């Protein structure tokens, strides 16, 4: 690497690590091994997500001898999604590749992901076709994949695979939290990003333990729900509130009709009051929901929610010329 006139970074490899002290050095060696075939400048960003073991000590030691290595340390454990987002913010590359730091993903797949990006895709998602995890982890993941696939417009086999390549501009502005890293392709595709999937290698965990238990199923389910709300209504919240208001409006009409009948046909006073109160209550619900919808519209129109403000990203992601991308091809032999 020429330090006096450094090439701009083309690729940033972002890896979140939480208590992976035994894997970190092997991971780095694997990445450097693959990096030898790159004809462009790259960086490796290790994000220590508040590890309590020697992960950060190992990273600091490795940093002394590895120019490509940059690192971030969180004060506490914020979660894999936050670690990835911090890595995106820090990344200087045009392309960002993410992967797990526990050696379950294989760095040798990176050139293939880059090859797909150079074909003109904005996001290339790995598919652990031959997944080496316990069946109790694979089964819920299959169910989650099926739900995400049927409720978002991006059809993938394996949303949870961390091994992915992104054009940086497609993910840098995503607002993500919870376990939302598996929805990056769906969120980015809302801005016009072209997404594809490729099978990648997968290994069983050799060191340390998985950081997730059964509680992940609940987190993923709630994120699927939140994600669908974002996809459907973030650019047009009034629509969501109008949909919620419709049943109350029908009830208002129903009770309003009964109130009229009660007055015209002179039903008992008790009945008339009950129907009147019901009409007022359901009518108020309609008014409140519509008012919330209007507030939502105002919030969206003044906020910088990336998925509702598309033009900048859309310009960059959609109008990429396939030929330009091929001309940029920099991976030897890819
Ligand atoms: N990870 C993280 N923060 C967390 C949980 C996990 O940075 O709170 C990292 C972890 O160190 C690993 C990757 O995210 O590099 C995937 O985690 P894990 O292997 O536990 O997930 P699994 O493969 O079991 O789905
Ligand atoms: Mg793992």
How would you describe the overall organization of this protein?
The protein has 334 residues and is of the alpha/beta class. It has helices spanning 24-35, 55-63, 80-90, 110-118, 135-151, 168-171, 184-189, 215-233, 237-264, 269-302, 311-318, 322-327; strands at residues 9-17, 41-48, 69-73, 95-98, 123-127, 164-167, 195-199. Strands 3-2-1-4-6-5-7 form a seven-stranded mixed sheet, sandwiched between helices. Helix 1 (24-35) links the parallel strand 1 and strand 2. Helix 5 runs parallel beside helix 8 (215-233) and helix 9 (237-264) runs antiparallel to helix 10 (269-302). The relative contact order is 0.13. It binds uridine-5'-diphosphate and magnesium ion. Uridine-5'-diphosphate binds at residues 16-18, 20, 49, 77, 79-80, 83, 100-102, 104, 210-212. Magnesium ion binds at residues 100, 102, 104, 205, 210.
- The poorly predicted ranges are 308-334
Strand order of the largest sheet: 3-2-1-4-6-5-7
- From the alpha-carbon coordinates, what is the Rg to the nearest angstrom? 25 Å
CATH class group of the largest domain: Alpha Beta
Number of helical stretches of at least 4 residues:
12
The proportion of residues forming helix, as a percent range, comes to: 40-55%
Largest sheet features: 7 strands, mixed
* Beginning-to-end CA distance, first to last residue: 21 Å
């Amino acid at each position: 690497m020429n330090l006096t006139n450094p090439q701009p970074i083309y690729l940033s490899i972002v890896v979140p690590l939480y208590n992976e002290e035994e894997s970190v050095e092997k991971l780095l060696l694997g990445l450097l091994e693959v990096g030898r075939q790159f004809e462009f400048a790259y960086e490796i960003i290790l994000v220590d997500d508040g590890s309590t073991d020697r992960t950060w000590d190992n990273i600091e030691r490795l940093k002394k001898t590895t120019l490509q290595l940059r690192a971030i340390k969180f004060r506490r454990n914020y979660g894999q999604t936050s670690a990835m987002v911090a890595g995106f913010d820090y990344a200087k590359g045009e392309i960002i590749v993410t992967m797990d730091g526990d050696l379950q993903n294989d760095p040798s797949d990176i050139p293939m992901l880059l090859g797909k990006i150079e074909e003109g895709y904005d996001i290339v998602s790995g598919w652990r076709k031959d997944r080496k995890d316990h069946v109790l982890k694979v089964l819920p993941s299959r169910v989650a994949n099926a739900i995400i696939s049927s409720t978002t417009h991006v059809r993938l086999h394996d949303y949870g695979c961390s091994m992915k390549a992104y054009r940086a501009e497609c993910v840098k502005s995503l607002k993500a939290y919870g376990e939302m890293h598996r929805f990056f392709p769906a969120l980015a595709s809302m801005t016009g990003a072209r997404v594809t999937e490729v099978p990648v290698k997968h290994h069983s965990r050799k060191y340390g333990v998985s950081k997730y238990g059964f509680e992940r199923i609940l987190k993923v389910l709630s994120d699927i729900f939140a994600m669908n709300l974002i996809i459907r209504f973030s650019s047009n919240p009034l629509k969501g509130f109008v949909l919620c208001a419709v049943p109350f409006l029908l009830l208002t009409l129903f009770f309003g009709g009964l109130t009229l009948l009660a007055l015209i046909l002179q039903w008992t006073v008790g009945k008339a009051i009950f129907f009147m109160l019901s009409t007022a209550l359901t009518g108020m619900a309609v008014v409140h929901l519509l008012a919330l919808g209007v507030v939502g519209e105002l919030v969206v129109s003044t906020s910088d929610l990336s998925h509702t403000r598309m033009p900048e990203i859309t310009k960059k992601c959609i109008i990429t010329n396939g030929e330009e991308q091929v001309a940029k091809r920099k991976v030897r032999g890819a």
